[in-house]
Amino acid sequence: MSLAHGRPYLAIPGPSVMPDAVLQAMHQPAPNIYEGDIVTLVEGIVRDVKRVARTEGHVAIYIANGHGAWEAALSNLYKPGDRVLVPATGRFAHGWAEMAEGLGLVPQIVEFGTQSPIDAARIEEILTADTAHEIKGVLFSHVDTATSIRNDPRPLRAALDAAGHPALLMADCIASMACDEFHMDDWGVDVALTGSQKGLMVPPGLSFVFFNDRAKAVRAQMPRVSRYWDWVPRSEPEFVYQYFGGTSPTHHLFGLRAALDMLHDEGMEHVWARHATLARVVWAACERWSEGGALKLNLADRSLRSHAVTALGVGIGNGQKMRAWTAENAGLTLGLGLGMATEEDPHGTGFFRIGHMGHLNAHMVLGAVGVIEAGLQALQIPHGKGALEKAAEVVAQPEAVAF
Amino acid sequence: MSLAHGRPYLAIPGPSVMPDAVLQAMHQPAPNIYEGDIVTLVEGIVRDVKRVARTEGHVAIYIANGHGAWEAALSNLYKPGDRVLVPATGRFAHGWAEMAEGLGLVPQIVEFGTQSPIDAARIEEILTADTAHEIKGVLFSHVDTATSIRNDPRPLRAALDAAGHPALLMADCIASMACDEFHMDDWGVDVALTGSQKGLMVPPGLSFVFFNDRAKAVRAQMPRVSRYWDWVPRSEPEFVYQYFGGTSPTHHLFGLRAALDMLHDEGMEHVWARHATLARVVWAACERWSEGGALKLNLADRSLRSHAVTALGVGIGNGQKMRAWTAENAGLTLGLGLGMATEEDPHGTGFFRIGHMGHLNAHMVLGAVGVIEAGLQALQIPHGKGALEKAAEVVAQPEAVAF
Amino acid sequence: MSLAHGRPYLAIPGPSVMPDAVLQAMHQPAPNIYEGDIVTLVEGIVRDVKRVARTEGHVAIYIANGHGAWEAALSNLYKPGDRVLVPATGRFAHGWAEMAEGLGLVPQIVEFGTQSPIDAARIEEILTADTAHEIKGVLFSHVDTATSIRNDPRPLRAALDAAGHPALLMADCIASMACDEFHMDDWGVDVALTGSQKGLMVPPGLSFVFFNDRAKAVRAQMPRVSRYWDWVPRSEPEFVYQYFGGTSPTHHLFGLRAALDMLHDEGMEHVWARHATLARVVWAACERWSEGGALKLNLADRSLRSHAVTALGVGIGNGQKMRAWTAENAGLTLGLGLGMATEEDPHGTGFFRIGHMGHLNAHMVLGAVGVIEAGLQALQIPHGKGALEKAAEVVAQPEAVAF
Amino acid sequence: MSLAHGRPYLAIPGPSVMPDAVLQAMHQPAPNIYEGDIVTLVEGIVRDVKRVARTEGHVAIYIANGHGAWEAALSNLYKPGDRVLVPATGRFAHGWAEMAEGLGLVPQIVEFGTQSPIDAARIEEILTADTAHEIKGVLFSHVDTATSIRNDPRPLRAALDAAGHPALLMADCIASMACDEFHMDDWGVDVALTGSQKGLMVPPGLSFVFFNDRAKAVRAQMPRVSRYWDWVPRSEPEFVYQYFGGTSPTHHLFGLRAALDMLHDEGMEHVWARHATLARVVWAACERWSEGGALKLNLADRSLRSHAVTALGVGIGNGQKMRAWTAENAGLTLGLGLGMATEEDPHGTGFFRIGHMGHLNAHMVLGAVGVIEAGLQALQIPHGKGALEKAAEVVAQPEAVAF
């Protein structure tokens, strides 16, 4: 007998749970891709996805995953030999830096470990020292999916400004967009990018590069940009097929339309507040568990934590055991620890992650922490008591969250 | 901001949560209804739905809800003026009795209230007294969806046998089939009926009347049976359209095929054990809550409780408030109290029900009790502490359940 | 190699082709059935399905197929021993008469064969002779799905009026509703019934009984009506569950809502005109084929033909061969001949039917006649030439059809 | 009144009609992307998509459209400054050459117009003259979607061999794969590429680059390849996420699995034969129409025509009118003329294309030619008679097609 039979719940940090309305919208015949409804469909999506990023700038949409967006953004702005600065707070910053290397760029990684956010003062120092302005871009993760650290873009903007440095500020918002508060224009981010499968609640396969006029001007100076990644025809198309450099991703567009309607019907401020509150539900449980034992939140300081994903340590081997137990016994799939290897735990078996992004309500989250409590009991992992009541308390009396 | 945005969870006692495989299977073009695949489809369903009821007898499948099955079963066996005995442990027994009256039968209700099971001794007494064998059938709810009382069919069989009474034993298994253990043949039930939308996990719209050779013989003596309800062509069809007395319910059949595959792949014993355990999860929480306050399980004795639905009292007005709160704030829809009106609470506002039937796992149930805990806190309904940990404990260390 | 691989096309006279929007709408979780959106959903459906029947009267919706609607309508109006008159123009009139017999009524069949419509003069004669008004109802098929004869309700109304006879005029519109023009109120029909799976474009499983105040008054005089069929609570419910005498057919309601939106967005007059024109497309081909050979339309007179289905003879054995050929070689499923048995052809193998009802456009119909042409050629069935160009001509230059 | 209401039929040359099984398979929750079923899912897809291309070589699958596959293939094999030869028989060869330019390569276009295939002798001449082997690749369209010309890869292979030239032979099979016969290994093609949305019957969003060991060896010599396009980790992954250089396109994989099952269940030889025969159905009609008037097939020689798409001229303005007429009046969407502009007709309004690829049967194709016939009549475009009967004749008596 297994208690896993039932509607499975996927709590990994992406893909997130797809709303029924999204999957429904994708279940229809292919449309004409040259004329007719497709034109207004794409135009509306361009308009409304920019409202999610809070930008009046531009967007290029790619049939690609987030790694594609990384490459696309870099391809439009930098040529082989160009230097980029990459403050790192987890595995994904390193991934972006590798992507830059693959294009012949010269990334300079500034390492902040897996438990501290970017120190903007350190970045300002480096930028100030770069009087020749050889650094062309600053690439950072708004939220690093591996460590769940959330980096505030504002101090980075201030650092660039204080240093009087013209490098572009580029934010990887793959894990955070439509979960954690983000205002591209107001916060001075020049380029932001994201994927479809997390806060946007659409199956993986689309990614988005938002850019402002400063970035556009840099692109205009590029001697050559690969046709597939070139954002010019994608953001200023004469014909509809240029939005996607060829055939449109018709069914993803149907799904995305439904998802954008849901987000804007709820209101972005409400979406962010919901994520903030549900993250607190998870934290309330985790903090209580950690009082009594082995479990440890990756980040002690709440203000550094993403509202979309939580990384946890539970002792060598226990992360892996926990994930197996919840999947086999309770219908809950947790995320594995990524980039958390240590000398004692070279495969990161002591970690797991809870994804709490996208189409998410109190029932789903309270169910997840309930199952983890059961797992801690079953696997006899020492843990503090009263975690679930604390979690329920946050649902019962959510703090006001203002944006 | 509402924490209800996300995948809604419906925890009413039917319709239950439909598996994705069922909805997927229903999303296809209509088939030919006169020949081809439909023939083997229906034959396989007939075979496999009888395995759910644990009978080698017969089944007639109706395009109808459970109320239709009530009428169908009675229409095949009784003529105006016939007497039937109806031991009642909740609203649904009364509903069936009304259906009998609508057909001109004479139901004799034996009332056991809303908190006690049927007393088989009392039934035996009545049957023994009926030396003329005027009572033609004994109609009872295996589980009454309103009170969540589970009545054991075996003592009733024994009562009939002890009284040497030929009346047919008829079980309403609408709320219990494929949730609570049931062996039609072994337990001596002559007629059993159910609907598609609970343990069978298919949208409402199909119902099933299972009958054995004794019931078949009674039907054979009937002077006239309405063509639509007549189970003879439906259970012994010459042509495929006779299974449904006309056009087949094609899409429901597609869904039912998927659901039966899921049930038999899991194994009926495992399905029952899962329901038994998940019911204990709900009870563990409820019993703890009830220690400290207003909340009260309808049935104190665990052995009388259904594994599919739990009825609770929380104080006048509070049932209604709780249901509104969980739907608006947490994405959880609870069932309303049915047939629980009292003089002080004429609209039954003090009750609610938790459905825990069908496509159900530990995550779903722990989420439901987590939300109810939040509701008790938010609405300041006095309740005992530690309920959620107790619930998680059942998931962590399920008792062995044998059938 | 088979040319049947591809999107199959079902051209049987029901179920018809389900629109994607309908199947999409049905692919969603079950809703609460006691409160919330379900209430407005059902109310809207009641309102809009009456607009399809063109009645300001009442409707009871049943979870049942068309045979259920037959029984439901009779159950509300007649008691055992009551006489009903059944003018017959095909198998389905006989089916309804059998249903009446099953309820203990005394149907009097007036046979008009399979190639002539009802002769209203003959009906008037019978009614005039029934001075005691023993005949309580006149039951006829607006369109008989087997013969494809369309009977005009107006002369029947006139016959009743001329005879001064109070019997109710009851129309079986299962095959015709939302295909062939129909105005229940204006044409003086007292009771009309239909199913979900033809012109209404929803999977089989729902049926509808429309009735006017005259019929309602007759119902009010009935000593007893079966609870499941009783249309009183279904048409004047106090609580939402009464619409369906128990659990609502939730997913069919979702689908029906989508279908009604499609019908009323197009406009009923346009829907009827489309069916009228597409029927002419089929006829143009069939008439040309019949010039040169074996193929014969069941009805020579266009004004007698349904716009929803066409019955054809092609010579003993050839109907069956044709159906097998088109399914195996071209992806087209044709309807079998029903109720067309003769002494020489006891299994009706010489007939087939083309369903052209519901979600239907010129491409679908021209494809169907194209495949039949190929079948005539492949099976070497003698046939006239130029049929397909004639069919295309109707699409190229449709006659104006006014309602 | 419009005869377009009904199931729309999209006969453009991609996206093709998606099978219900594919859309159904895509309608499910997201899976875990790091472990579990995803691993065997991708492995099976890799195996089975190679069987479609008839190669025992390698494949890299990209989240991208066909244009992405163009760039991916070039990115793995050539560096800025490398020369590639591009024999052109339509717009898409030019598109690929532009993609090469965008990467800094130097494409040499050899123009064969829009009505002639590649002349292999001319290619051999050029290759023979390139004694320094500066030409690194020969890029051609197996089928050019714009002109519907089908180029046989075998003479090109022979030309390379005769010239003793080491350039890689690269085939764009986007429009032809799983429609027109193709044997990558046997025919000596080094690199082949395709997309998901045509013969593979899956929504746009995936593309495929197949390559043999020769191409792999060339890749191994590349100094640097962009990380996203690099086919090494995609074809020799250590971890499942490397197949897609990041997040997997989960829902496309579900759909592709269903589509590959359909193709291999039918058998590739049968799939090709079906396309060959259905193309002949289209041609039979078009050739007859062209006898009497304005309509003209782009290619007079049947052996040069693709089995997946047919390009037609109908006189200036008429192509555009025809497409509008069939969409508005009959539910048929035809493809527009691409790359067919002439001096007199600078917008190519005189052309249209019929897509006949993928999930396709005789009913669909006969419906399409039936609607075009109606359009020719309605728009009074002169045309030969008897076209539809000729088309039906091909279905009735298909020639044997052997591969």
UniProtKB/TrEMBL annotation, chains A, B, C, D:
Residue numbers binding substrate: R353
Residue span, Aminotransferase class V domain: 36-283
Record PTM N6-(pyridoxal phosphate)lysine, positions in chain: K198
Pfam families for the chain: Aminotran_5
An example Gene Ontology biological process: glycine biosynthetic process, by transamination of glyoxylate
Keywords from the named record: Aminotransferase, Pyridoxal phosphate, Pyruvate, Transferase
GO molecular function ontology, one term from the record: L-serine-pyruvate transaminase activity
Cofactor entry: pyridoxal 5'-phosphate
Sequence similarity: Belongs to the class-V pyridoxal-phosphate-dependent aminotransferase family.
UniProt-recorded name of the protein: Alanine--glyoxylate aminotransferase family protein
Annotated source species: Pseudooceanicola antarcticus
Lineage of origin: Bacteria, Pseudomonadati, Pseudomonadota, Alphaproteobacteria, Rhodobacterales
